[in-house]
Design goal:
With 69 residues, the protein is an alpha+beta fold. Helices cover 17% and strands 35% of the residues. The protein is built from one helix and three strands, in the order βββα.
């Protein structure tokens, strides 16, 4: 028997008002984002719920990730 853990998050209430890549040693290493009025440094990890929601909103055309400074 194989056990599979599935995580579920309610994401439709997440308001992302800004998103910008940040770099480490010249490569994008995460996204600085304002989510629900708070600043987050989000890793580029598909398992991260904030990153998944950022990508969903980018795909929907409602959010653009700005290039790193």
């Amino acid at each position: 028997m194989r056990l599979v853990l599935v995580r579920s998050y309610k994401m439709d209430g997440m308001t992302i008002t800004s998103a910008q890549y940040f770099q480490f040693h010249g490569a994008n290493s995460g996204i600085k984002a304002t989510i629900d009025g708070k600043e987050y440094f989000v890793p580029l990890d598909p398992a991260n719920r904030h990153y998944a929601e950022i990508l969903r909103q980018v795909d929907a055309g409602t959010l653009t990730i700005q290039d790193a400074d």
